[in-house]
Design goal:
The protein is an alpha/beta fold. It has a domain of 189 residues: Vaccinia Virus protein VP39 (Rossmann fold, 3-Layer(aba) Sandwich). It has 11 helices and 7 strands. It has a 7-stranded mixed β-sheet with strand order 3-2-1-4-5-7-6. Strand 1, helix 3 and strand 2 form a beta-alpha-beta unit. The chain binds S-adenosylmethionine. S-adenosylmethionine binds next to helix 1, helix 2, helix 3 and strand 2.
């Protein structure tokens, strides 16, 4: 299955396809350090097999490839063609013969003979329309004792809520599919752990970590928003209003500049780990 079979999937694969050229490449450290922590929780060893769902530009995939080494096997799957093409090229350039990247839906995780040793999903599961069903299928492709490690967002930095307040008046009321069912599964650590238990996992636990993104100026923050999932806020604005919406955001974000001239955004991130029975 390579064409999105649900409007929510089509929406997000489009967003990330358009972000793929500059994704994780505007000089802001975010995905790589957090993906490294996801990979660390998977306890990978040389020779292991690992599946990375929603691999994006490879933040977790390449760290996992290092952990399993040339005798291992790391498969990245993503629904955004731009992500897949660019990450496959990066893998080739890096000479990583243990890595494969393919277009696919996290909802239909590919099987591996004997089951995967680990499946990763760094900032992905909350994009799926039915995350319990997706997690259940992940469990089915893991070997007994295999690990599913995923990251999700906890409460965000309240100071930055000024951005949505400034931009949302430019959003027409009906131009965005809303995903309330998905959101409810990610409202708290307990909700995600319940989702994983419902999907049949055991030994579910979560570690909460803080990540501080540093932007050297408002323009770098703006570039970052276009390069990541945050571009949803801009794609909701009608073309004719985009300049005004960005100017409004620019003004409120300028108010967050700290005495040393930098901007800092704090992210509370949950690293969940669950084991296949
Ligand atoms: C926030 S990015 C995270 C990328 C990467 N895991 C990382 O940590 O940098 C989410 C990724 O999930 C992908 N994605 C969203 N829905 C998907 C689905 N149903 N199947 C596969 N990939 C999906 C997007 O295309 C995007 O590359």
């Amino acid at each position: 299955m390579t064409e999105p079979d649900h409007p929510q999937k089509a929406h997000f694969s489009g967003i990330f396809h358009r972000a793929s050229e500059t994704y994780d490449a505007v000089g802001v450290d975010f995905f790589a350090p957090l993906a490294a922590q996801v990979v660390a929780r998977a306890d990978l060893s040389a020779g292991d097999s690992v599946l990375d769902l929603g691999c994006g530009r490879g933040a977790a995939l390449f760290a996992a490839a290092d952990a399993v080494g040339p005798s291992g096997h790391a498969l990245g799957v993503d629904l955004a063609p731009g992500m897949v093409e660019r990450t496959a090229l990066d893998a080739e350039r890096r000479g990583l013969t243990q890595v494969r990247v393919q277009l696919g839906d996290a909802d239909q995780p590919p099987a591996h003979a004997g089951g995967w040793d680990a499946v990763l999903a760094a900032f992905v599961l909350f994009f799926l329309p039915d995350p319990v069903a997706t997690a259940t299928r992940v469990r089915e492709v893991l070997r007994p004792g295999g690990r599913f490690v995923l990251s999700t967002f906890d409460v965000s930095d309240v100071r930055w809520k000024v951005v949505e307040a400034a931009v949302s008046p430019f959003w027409p009321p009906t131009n965005e599919p809303s995903h309330p069912a998905t959101k409810s599964h990610f409202s708290s650590t307990a909700a995600v752990e319940e989702l994983l238990a419902e999907a049949g996992f055991v030994d579910v636990d979560t570690v909460l970590v803080e990540h501080v993104s540093v932007y050297r100026d408002v323009q770098q923050w703006l570039d970052w928003t276009w390069s990541a999932g945050a571009r949803v806020i801009w794609e909701r604005v009608p073309e004719a209003d985009l300049e005004a919406a960005q100017a409004a955001a620019y003004d409120v974000v300028a108010g967050l500049v700290e005495p040393d001239g930098m901007l800092r955004e704090r992210f509370a991130v949950r690293l969940h780990r669950a084991v296949g029975p």
